[in-house]
Structures are given as structure tokens and as C-alpha cells.
Design a protein that fits this description.
With about 110 residues, the chain is mainly alpha-helical. Helix content is about 70%, strand content about 5%.
Length: about 110
Amino acid sequence: MSRRWLAVLRTQPRRSPGSLSTGTAGLGGEAGLDPAAVWRECAFALGTRPDRLRLQLDLFYDRRNQIAHEGDWDIVQLDFRQMDKVHLFDCVRYAAQLAEAMDAVL
């Protein structure tokens, strides 16, 4: 993985798919890839489509923001949102696979 890409991830580790695309755009000359190509290659490595990959990451990012910024409080139900261990492990597995795919592409 390039040093510039690592610097992008270290300075702002909690990234949405859109901001990751912006970060990869700066690496175009160094890595020879544009953001669309990065997402496409990562998606193919994970056996999915780029739009599904980004949607799943958006959902995880939104869930992370609910926990971090809303205290995981559901204002409609007036109760805490439930988090199953299965969902937690699925999120961790998915994030690790995406990170490994991006590492291989970049």
C-alpha cells in the first residue's frame, strides 16, 4: 500500500465511501487507478458489484454514526437500538475484507 494512501487513512480513519473515493483520487498518478477502478477491483475481489459494496459500507458508516453521535438511542422507540453479536461480527469481517481488498488493489 502506498505511503500517501496510508496517510489518508490515518488522518481520517472513519470514512464514508464518498470520502474514500476522494482520497483515492489523489493517488491516481501514483497507483495508476482512478476511484471507480479502485471500487470495481475491490468489489470483484469480494465477489460483489461496486454499487453494492459502497451501499453496504454506507450502511455500516451510518450505523457507526448512530452509535457514536446518538448514543445508539432510538428517538422513535424511546429505547436503545439492539446490536446482536452476529451483526457485530459481520461488520468486523466485512470491514477487514474490504481493507484487505483495498490493500491488494493499491
